[in-house]
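TASK: fixed-backbone design
INPUT:
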């Protein structure tokens, strides 16, 4: 794997050599059937929230942190579909590449878990992902994305203690990994005709930052 850039020792870019044709088809298949694939876990989420509201046994300290995490909402798809649990063509190769890249960059001895999802933007729907964070900075998490079909689109970051916005210019087969220390990032509308913009997003979170009562049957060991 070829390291392309290191921005402020915070955002790392690595060039992979994966089969994008098969990964593209896997992404489209998963996105087209997400209503079916997500149904079991969406039901689990509904049960969890029902019990939470009924029993009122929240851990105040934990939930004060979780409220700042990338959303675990009752009716959202996030938390329902972990791409790395799917035996679709190309996904195992991507998982292995992310694991090797992460272990090359991160040097602590914690046990980490990963989740992943597909982002598909079409020109006619004018999709964007506006400024947002993932996990709270105290949770020692990482996050990133893999470029499946991105043209020259960009993702912008706001990093702690850095005044200017930092842009990552898209390139197919580019794997981006960023620290989760309080950054924000966003995408922009996709303007190209034909094939949509396709990326695979992911989080990497240490074991101690995952509530097993909330997140069971979802995360994949890294």
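OUTPUT:
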């Amino acid at each position: 794997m070829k390291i392309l850039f290191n921005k402020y020792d915070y955002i790392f870019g690595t060039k992979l050599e994966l089969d994008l044709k098969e990964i593209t088809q896997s992404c489209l298949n998963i996105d087209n059937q997400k209503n079916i694939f997500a149904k079991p876990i969406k039901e689990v989420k509904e049960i969890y929230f029902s019990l939470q509201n009924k029993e009122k046994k929240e851990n105040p300290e934990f939930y004060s942190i979780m409220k700042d995490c990338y959303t675990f909402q009752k009716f959202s798809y996030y938390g329902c579909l972990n791409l790395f649990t799917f035996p679709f063509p190309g996904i195992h190769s991507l998982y292995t590449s992310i694991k090797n890249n992460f272990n090359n960059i991160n040097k602590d001895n914690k046990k980490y878990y990963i989740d992943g999802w597909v982002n598909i933007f079409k020109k006619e729907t004018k999709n964007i992902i506006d400024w947002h964070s993932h996990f709270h900075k105290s949770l020692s998490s990482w996050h990133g994305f893999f470029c499946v079909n991105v043209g020259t689109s960009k993702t912008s970051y706001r990093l702690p203690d850095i005044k200017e916005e930092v842009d990552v210019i898209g390139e197919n087969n580019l794997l981006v990994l960023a620290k989760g220390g309080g950054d924000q990032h966003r995408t922009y509308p996709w303007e190209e005709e034909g094939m949509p913009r396709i990326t695979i997003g992911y989080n990497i979170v240490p074991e101690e930052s995952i509530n097993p009562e909330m997140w069971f049957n979802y995360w994949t060991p890294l």
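COMMENT: DSSP finds five helices and ten strands in the chain.
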